[in-house]
Each structure stands twice: as structure tokens, then as C-alpha cells.
Amino acid sequence: MTAELKQSYVTDVKELKNLSQAEVGEVAKVAAKYPFYCSEYYLSLIDWNDPNDPIRQVVVPHAKELEKWGRLDPSDEQSYTVMPGLEHKYNSTALLLVSKTCAGICRYCFRKRVFLGSKRDCITDLPAALNYISQHKEITNVLLTGGDPLMLSTDGLEEIITKLRQIDHVQIIRIGTRMPVYNPYRIAEDKQLLDLIEKYSTPYKKIYMMTHFVHPRELTDIAIQACHLMKKAGAEMTNQTPLIKGINDNPDVLAELFAKLSFYGVVPYYVFQCRPASGNKAYTVPIETGYDIFEQAKARISGLAKRARFVMSHSSGKIEIIGKTDTNVFMKYHRAADDSDSGKFMIFKSNPQACWFDDYDEVNYPADKPYRSYGPE
Prior knowledge:
Elements (H helix, E strand, L loop, with lengths): L2 H4 L2 E2 L10 H11 L6 E2 H4 L10 H6 L21 E3 L2 E5 L2 E5 L14 H4 L10 H10 L5 E5 L8 H11 L7 E5 L2 H4 L2 H4 L2 H10 L6 E5 L9 H13 L2 E8 L7 H13 L3 E7 L13 H12 L10 E6 L2 E8 L3 E9 L8 E5 L28
Parallel strand pairs: 5-6, 6-7, 7-8, 8-9, 9-10, 10-11
Antiparallel strand pairs: 1-2, 3-4, 4-5, 11-12, 12-13, 13-14
Helix pairs in contact: 7-10, 10-11, 12-13
């Protein structure tokens, strides 16, 4: 790939030369509501002769996104927002939303509001946020997210990490990034970034890179090299992927993804139920179907490749789907917003059409803790 294409981005669907004029008109209507943005590198991975190409499905707008369904904040992140760009949902973990942009906008993104100009979804006062973290000694993990933190300059990222490392009780810094997927050259060709990881990922306080590979074809040679370099610099590498219709809702595809990640030293961490964000209906696999796909994929791979958990990031906590029968579905709180509920086991009547926790009847939970439904906007 040429040096020019390595760092170039497409911001207008009219620049997608492989689409017909009619297709451009259709996707432009979608992009007017849910923005489009993508690296030239990632676009080069698409087989434009296949309208169902999974890489294309990830990033090219589609008319199905305009179906009214879901809401802009499906996990009620605003309920846990302490100040703009700082969330504190789980006692030991704080989120800093440090960037409003990504190297590509996934069509099924659960945080679309960030790209729509929400003013509470990015840090506006870093010193105040750092002061909050320093005053809350229960916070041992800080997740840098957004947007994608690696869209910041390396100097900008280093400023944040340096200040976090000055807070003694912050042991782990996590960086949630899809940069190894969308533009691995950003990592592979930035020695300053790798030096930063080496400096601040120490024997006692690690940096974790939370990657987001969703399909085996994203694991190109340069993407694998970028992960290797980060791991060599001292970062712990994990991967989390949403289960997305038309992209990875196939046991063979998911098994291949898990297996290859394990080969490359990237731990499969979470498989997320697609959140009911606005525009996400066509990308969503029903929970019980997703559980079957997940378990069938795990049956094809080694123990090292099957460490992921199938979870929902619900308003009330991270809920793990742990089993099902013909009549019931079994879940538990992997981590609850209310610590006293963590580990709570729940049994529901089967609902093959359920796409979110709120779709199940007979929730084994007190009536005074209602869950917000995710109706149309």
C-alpha cells in the first residue's frame, strides 16, 4: 500500500468509486443521518463484486439502518456520567471518552451519539476528570475510549497516560481501539507510540489494548504485525467483538476468528450482544440464536481460543448468557452496577425473538428496580 493511502480517509460516500450512481444516492441518505467515515486501507479489503461482503457490511451505509428501532444511548451511559466524558458505572472502573472520532465508523456502533455531536460524550475538562479518579481510590482500572483513543496524536495520548500513571491506585489502563483493524499502519509505523507502551506498561501496572476484530478477513498481515508490535512493547492484548448479522453470525466464521486471535496472542475476551442502538435492528441476532452460534463456534476450537464470554452491556450491568434449554434461558450478572447483584443468577422463559434483556418475561428481580425499554426513537 502506498504511503498516501496508509494515512488517508474517506469522509464522503460520493468518494466510494466502486458504487454505482444509484447506490451512492441510497447510501448518501443513510450517511446524512448516521455519518460515514473510513480509512482507505480498510476499504481496500472489500470485495466490491460481492454486495454481501462482510467487510462492506461493517462500514458502508445501508438503507436498512433507517428502520426505526432502538435509541441513541441503549446502555444508559448518561446515567453513569459524572461529568462530560467521564463515566463511573462499576466501582473499580472508570471510562474516559477521550476522542470523538474513529478510523472508521462501524454501521452497528452503539455510541452513534458521539458522532452526532453529543456534548456530554467527550472529555472537556481533563484535570477535573483526573481529580475525580484520584479522589476515588476504588478505581483501579481506567478505560480510554470514545471514539478511538488512537485517533489522538501520540503526544496527546501520552499526556493522558502520563497523568494517569501519577495516580497510585490506577493499576490498569485499558485502551479500547479498532485502529489495528482500520489502520494498523498508525501503530506499526509509530515508534513513539510503541515506546509509550513500553514505558508505561510495567511489570506491576499493565496497559491493555482492547482490540475489536469482528471478522477473520480483518486479520491481515499488517494488522497481525501491529498487534505483535504492541504485545512486544508490553501491552496485554485482548479482543472483544459484537455478534453482528451478516458479518460473523456463523459458527465457522466465529470459530476461525477466535482460533486465529489465539494463534496471534490476542485473547478472545467478550462477544457482545449487539446493543439496541438506533439503526441497529438489521444487524442484530436474537439472543438465543446468538448463544447457539457462540457455543457451536467454541466447540470447534481449543481451550485457549474459547475464553470469550457472551454478554450484554445492559443499563443494570454486564449480563452473561450462560445456558438455555427448550423452555428456559439462564443468565447471570458478570458485573452489576450495584455490586450486591454481581453474580446474581437469573432464569427466564425462552423467547426466541428476544434481542435484549428487557425482552424477557418473569425477570427474577425486585419490581422496584425496573429496566428501561428500548422502543423506537
